[in-house]
Amino acid sequence: MALVTELDEVGRVQPAGAFVSTDGMISHRVRAKQILRSHPEARALIGRNPWTFALILGTTALQFAIAFALRDAPWWLVLIAAYGVGAFANHALFVMVHECTHRLVFKSLAANRFAGILCNAAQLVPSFTSFERHHLRHHTYLGVPGYDPDLPPDWEIAVFNRGPVGRAAWIFLMPFLQAARPLVMKGGNVLDFWMVFNVLAILALDIVIYFTMGGMALVYLALSTLFSIGGLHPISARWIQEHFLIGEDQETTSYYGLCNALDLNMGFHNEHHDLPTVPWNRLPKLTRIAPEFYDCLATHGSYTRLLWSFVVEGSPAINARLVRIIEDARSGRKKGVVSSE
Question: What is the dihedral of CA 111, 282, 93, 130, to 10 degrees?
Fold first, then answer.
């Protein structure tokens, strides 16, 4: 498909069905150019952080140690441990999957992929390869229906955008919804060595965990993964924080609360989208280097407050997203496709 590439820097924002539409360029591309022009020292933040691999090893070891300790524990203690500790640990592993996807740990592509698959060990779900393929599209096609895996499809809005119970169910089921979206996206998953290896390695490890530690250990790790992405856990509000509109056209919102210490600064999401090649530990430095670009933006300060506002008050709604609609260069018809660089 031929794509229109010449777009206004700001674009026009207006209501369009379930979402808010724009024909403008992704704001992060514009801001990144302005930051690097005004603060060339920000380029020094770009690079890799191999110490992230030590965190992967340490967090995985911690989760296995807790799972082993809980192998004979009652179900209620396993539930509390998963909600209070495991969710934060497995969410950190998810962020490290994200770092490996952006190749911010090692120079070698293969080394980053092995590290990303290792993150899945305590998560029990072989998600790295699929996430790697589709997350980079999220940056390139931000807000484009059918191309951005972070954008809820129409059926999710129709089913779940129905009061507090529907929104609570949507958050609780987020791990399953995010796993299902890539399966129906354009240019979906294709079996290759890495995908097969990812699936077989993690499934084999799941079996080993069951027969060496027992079912309760497996339940702890599974609940940790559920709560780390959804499950009505405060950390799950991150999915609402990142790209749900709280202003007219601010397509990304950062969070500057205490949980950044536990989710490896993923709250600095405007900063991450502006310069995706900056590793997690340097994102706060970007904010300090270029405060004039971030102090003027709306932000979140509490995941708990945001989760309550979303579920109970319906603000923001599931359809509070900015969607890009541009013309197909051949047909002249409007398509939900963003320009490519």
Answer: -60
